[in-house]
Amino acid sequence: MAPRKWNRDNWPIAAAMIQYPNLLPDGRSVQDQSAEEWAATLGDVVDAGFTELDPTDSWIRLADLSRDRLEEFVALTRSVGLTIPAISTARRSLIDPEHGEEYLAYGHRVIETAAAVGAGSVSFGFFGPLTEAQKKVLWFWTVDGLKNPDDAATWNTAISRVRELGRHAEELGVEVSLEMYEDTYLGTADSSVRFVEEVGLENVGINADIGNLIRLHRPVEHWQEMMAKVAPFAKYWHVKNYNRTEDAASGLIVTHPAPLEFGVINYRAAIRMALAHGFQSPFLCEHYGGDGLSVSAANRDYLRRILPREEGL
């Protein structure tokens, strides 16, 4: 892939669509909406000032649209001034015990779709669906979810499947970013680095979504130590932040979502660490709770203030 050179004015910073479910109140799927209905949702994104969109597959599965419907969606995004720099997948683990092979085939379709719509990055993860217990609480990360098995054979299957996707993506000029997420094979900085090094492909790196770990109500590695380890491997990056309070005397840990510039992770420092290692990938702004799209828009503006003024700096 040719090197990309961006500055704070043109760096692709996409809106996540995690605020919008795939299933509608009337029982229909977003997959089956009309272009006019899609436009109403995309209008929110445009009104928030975004020029880039990640059609996160928790909202719409572009890879499962027919060719005509995909062209209709892409034409719509262009007509409202949006581009698609990346596509993220969620809760479709390549090692799911029931659907792993199905999700592997889906991953190949995602890569092909990304290339077809001009997206240079895709994000995959090994986190599974929310458990019933997680669905019942205010913040799902306060309850333990599904865990990747501590099993060499499953680890090797994960490596093999990511390597297969990575080679396909390499042929199409697409980068693969693997999302950090608790209790998965990318659940710590050390295991994330070990995983991508074992995959061994230049276009496969780490989605340094350390917010997924900082929010946990358990002891975690300091964000700065995590970033120091994963920065050399950082690719397409989901950014979000949290406030975190730790009471050493009682062991109490409490977290909640925060705008990017106000949380415990210093993204000015974190991004500079990645830039020092040549980071040249898009960002995705996401936020849980409240009007997450508007908070993401504020986060986008913050990123534009702290990214390099000139290309290559």
UniProtKB/TrEMBL annotation:
Keywords annotated in UniProt: Isomerase
Pfam families registered for this protein in UniProt: AP_endonuc_2
Any GO molecular function: isomerase activity
TM annotation in the entry: none
Keyword Oxidoreductase: no
Domain Xylose isomerase-like TIM barrel: residue ranges: 45-299
SUPFAM superfamilies registered for this protein in UniProt: Xylose isomerase-like
InterPro entries according to UniProt: IolE/XylAMocC-like, Xyl_isomerase-like_sf, Xyl_isomerase-like_TIM-brl
Name of the protein this chain belongs to: Xylose isomerase
Organism listed in the record: Sinorhizobium glycinis
